[in-house]
Amino acid sequence: MDWMFAERTTSARRSVIRELLKLTERPEIISFAGGLPDPQTFPREFLAKVAADEILNNSAKSLQYTTTEGKLPLREPLSRWFAQDGMNFPPDQIVVTSAAQQGLDLVAKVFLNPGDAVFVALPTYIGAIQAFQAFQATLVGVPMEDDGMDLGALRAAVRSTRKAGHTPKLVYVVPDFQNPSGHTWSRGKRLELLEIAREEDLLVVEDMPYRWLRFVGEPIPPVAALDKEGRTILLFTFSKIFAPGLRLGALAGPKQVVEKVVTLKQATDLCTSSLNQRLAIRFLQEYDVAGHIQFIADLYRKKCSAMLEALARHMPAEERIRWTKPEGGLFLWVELPQGINTEKMLYRAIEHKVAYVIGAPFFVDGSGHNTLRLSFSSASCQDIEEGIRRLGQVVREELAALPAPQGTGNKG
Amino acid sequence: MDWMFAERTTSARRSVIRELLKLTERPEIISFAGGLPDPQTFPREFLAKVAADEILNNSAKSLQYTTTEGKLPLREPLSRWFAQDGMNFPPDQIVVTSAAQQGLDLVAKVFLNPGDAVFVALPTYIGAIQAFQAFQATLVGVPMEDDGMDLGALRAAVRSTRKAGHTPKLVYVVPDFQNPSGHTWSRGKRLELLEIAREEDLLVVEDMPYRWLRFVGEPIPPVAALDKEGRTILLFTFSKIFAPGLRLGALAGPKQVVEKVVTLKQATDLCTSSLNQRLAIRFLQEYDVAGHIQFIADLYRKKCSAMLEALARHMPAEERIRWTKPEGGLFLWVELPQGINTEKMLYRAIEHKVAYVIGAPFFVDGSGHNTLRLSFSSASCQDIEEGIRRLGQVVREELAALPAPQGTGNKG
Q1: How confident is the model over B231-243, as pLDDT tens digits?
Q2: Are A282 and A305 members of one domain?
Q3: In the prediction, which pLDDT does B3 show?
Q4: What pLDDT score does A34 carry?
Q5: DSSP B328
Q6: Which among A1, A49, A134 has the least Cβ separation from residue B267?
Q7: CB-based contact (8 Å) between A109 and chain B?
Q8: Which of A3, A366, A395, B405 is the most buried (most CB within 10 A)?
């Protein structure tokens, strides 16, 4: 049958990565591919106890429908939490979402007409690319530097995009320990981003799934905290500090925006799971959340260090081979010499029983074929050492197979 | 600030009903307004036990991310369940959704370009109206008869809509105990609907939240079971037979359609809650589901009978006052004489400490101001008797306040 699908389905694509992930699921493979939290970070005993209690003794609130904007006893502590971090969002400017991915969907749904421009980093989070593409956005890639987007390039991109007839609407950023690069934006760049947003009448979408998982250095205020004008939409998720299987997060922003988001969320799923909201309420009320986050950050610090040490030890010493040194989060990012295609290399890696995520799908401009993402969150330190040893071998073989020597390594 | 919202936000509306519901929440009011399942139908003890067990002993599956299409051990028993009812959807033609409302959102997202036509009953489920409006559908209302849509009117509407330049795409139906009318489609009309769909190249979206809750008469095969051609998309939900707070359902349909739905679901929320999926898996594996559904149907049969008896006793005897006699589900539907506006009447009802849902928002053609929906699912039989007595009084006062006598009741 000839299905008359909507036009938006032609730009919507399923993640290549998810297809490739299937290759990496064999148990003998040490995988740095999936961006999954370490299951030992799930507060199982506590959760089991409060889940049983909520279901047995509070079923009118845990098993029944709830409001579209989400339970007030969840929005209130979130508001206080955000305030501790300098972000001023009263509960009526917060809507509970089915994790941050739904926040992205709703932002796209509320703001994007086909062709409207969204500015994203090169590379950027794939789920954001998918959410914006599903609403036929014009995605404009802006090069990433160690301390955030190249903001000169952003300014130029906004202007040329407008000239080309597309309405610039959103800048999507993950300022803390970005997925996939691990980069963190400087305070200066955060401020300048807001300046550009004001000048060019853009909204900033600040996604902060990893913000609380800083394991080195001092926190830098979120863009939403530096924003005096109310141009920032904040996306929060419980996935990395509680449990991703609950699909729980929040969107916060200007009041008018949040009202539109609630209207469209009602049409999208009526409300987010009452039970899971109740579990998060109990988590925020009764659990040592700060201690728990510290525990997770400590765990990932160890694993990240293990990976950085292993990379230093096992990767070929070549200036053209570089990786980031993240101050938090779950990921680091590797650049290999031009000419190495990490998608092709993945098959060699799988032969060597190690896996990663290819970099290209994180780039909206078709570049990044020589890059890859390593997640240090789920493997053990021992597996990290062994897996990176294998990866070093893979890269060595790829270098050897390059058609012609690419110089002496003096030029990246 | 002047937010540049997407065009679709101008057609997206928050439900008036939800705003009016706030008026009805005072404890002294007997409310037939909300469409909430009776909380005594939630299998609390079982759920508490398996939730604790899944969280403690199966956290890799219950608390971690899961696949976008949903867990296979959930799609498999759903496939078998559908098969028992004559519907042939193998597991790879089923996607787990965050309840049926997300199914509606995804169908709209996959099929609708702005202006595309969706045919709905007069009246129809408001959540469907919202989902389709959010994607700028042209909603075309088709009169409802006791045994289903007026299919002559549907044929005419499809043709005139096409002539007007809109592409007819979907017919949305709730064939069993429709929300809000309580009507059930005859087998003949189900077959004729498929014939029209084939002739006019339409897809049927069959929403069946209440199908399993039949308490009178024999089941009629679902449209999806009568469909030999694969033109039906089925929306299933656990909300009325398990617990709505889990936000769990499924969409089943032709393979190509389901593939598109999965692609767009990935962009929408990555996946539906793993924990809640695991709870449903255990429910289907270990609970006496058939017995449980029988228990719910018995409960609602009693309540529905109580309401029908109370209506016969307390409503003014007037031919222009009519109500449906549903064979299942949660709702019945009342038509009052033209000239009575049930929205205005609601304030009088609240004075009399009884509440209902006004009918007009269920009509996409602006009609229905003399109608209202009564839910018999949550009130006790005692409250049903007293609440309908109050409603009878309200209607009597409204009749008395009508500007001029409207005849002797010989003409409706």
Answers
A1: 999 999 999 999 9
A2: no
A3: 80
A4: 84
A5: B
A6: A134
A7: yes
A8: A395
